[in-house]
Amino acid sequence: MPKIIKKGNLPTKSCVTCSLPFLWRRKWAKTWDDVKYCSERCRRQKASQQKG
């Protein structure tokens, strides 16, 4: 990804758990292809649903 990205041009994905769209974040720059959840809360919720 280029170093400077305007906010209107950020890539988006849909969360696997809540199906809400979320925007690219700088902390996900290296792992964007692997990101599935919009938050840590959704990641934990999905893990607990699979166990039960």
Question: What's this, in brief?
Answer:
The chain has 1 helix and 2 strands; from the N terminus they run ββα. The protein is α+β, with helices and mostly antiparallel strands and 52 residues long. The longest helix is centred in the C-terminal third of the chain and has 12 residues, at 40-51.
Please provide a written account of the structure:
The chain contains one helix and two strands; from the N terminus they run E-E-H. With 52 residues, it is of the alpha+beta class. It has a two-stranded antiparallel sheet with strand order 1-2.
Portion in beta strands = 5-15%
How are the strands of the largest sheet arranged? 1-2
Largest sheet: 2 strands, antiparallel
Which structural class best describes the helix and strand composition? Answer: alpha+beta
Radius of gyration: 13 Å
Number of helices: 1
**What gap, in angstroms, lies between the N and C termini?**
39 Å
Order of helices and strands: EEH
Helix content: 10-25%
Which outline best applies?
A: elongated
Average pLDDT for all residues: 86
Strands, count: 2
- Uncertain spans: none
Which keywords apply here?
elongated, 2 strands, 52 residues, 23% helix, alpha+beta
Topology:
Layout: E1 12-14, E2 21-23, H1 40-51
Antiparallel strand pairs: 1-2
